[in-house]
Amino acid sequence: MTDLETLEIETVVRLLSKTPRLTRQARYEECTAIVARHLSGGSEFLFALIKAAIKAGVHQTPLIEDAVSFLDDAGLARLAFFLQGEAKRGTDVDDLLSGAALQQPNLFPDDVLANIPDFEDWLTHADPRSPPGCHHLVFEGGAPDDPFFPTRVNHPTWHLPTAGQPFTIGGEGTGQCPTCSERLAHLITLDNFGVSANLSLPRLRIETCHGSLEVTFYVHDEEGRPTPIAPFHSDNDFTPQPMTRKSTVRLAPTPPRWLRQSYGTSNSRQNLFRLGGLPSWVQGPQFPVVPGTDRPMKFLLQFDSLAGFFWGSGGMLYIFWDEESRMTCHVPQYT
What we know:
The chain has 335 residues and is of the alpha+beta class. It folds into 2 domains: 3-123, no CATH class; 134-334, no CATH class. Helices cover 27% and strands 23% of the residues. It is built from 10 helices and 12 strands. The radius of gyration is 21 Å and the shape is elongated. The chain starts with a helix and ends with a strand.
């Protein structure tokens, strides 16, 4: 590393240590500006920064935790070795361990994975080290909304290579909620769909009531159009505003490093709009069954509280599908 890079690391650590009498926001903005210059191709710098932050005891901040996502494979392997050594010495590096383990669990032994809370959900599956494949929904123009943090706007999951046709997400739906009489919000319409799910329908139109904070079910006709069915949501559910914003997305095959994403670890920086794979739970596993049966439904996709969508106080919406009944189940979870 250059002398300038060493000086930059010392500056970030000093600012995070609250030595200068600056406001917290100004201190953090200066640190963010320094780190932003090294997010692309700066793995050596970021690894040294994380080590220095740990040594100084200022590593428990999103800026340092997010830096893990921008390490190359060699840097991530070095960090995994270093973090395990720090953990054995009694240093609290749990959040950094979680981020590294989710991205590359093969760098950690089973006993380490078993003690990482964010990995507990994955350990319930047959092969937690090799989860099923999935696709990300990548937005035209990158991360939606107005991302404040460079570690979000530049995060790799917003910029994965895409393939295939574009999809429109959001906008007004065609159906109506029987409880609140509001028009449903359109999530996505999957045309001639053959990726990450077994659908016999030529298309599947997924719509939801933006005022529902409860588990709801929709049955789909031969054209894939949804109709809400009982149980409906309660009269007390509430969402601040209708979800009418439209965005264009394309599917991107998810690389192995991002097959496991934790809602908590993502810190709203990562792209959690996903099709297939396994859910990134907010409150823990909640797999529905088809009403009147004990048949479990299959996870289809998940939407985050971004791009005009907002679930509860800020959370996720998970969509499940059952081929036999042509039914979707919408499961919201929020903080």
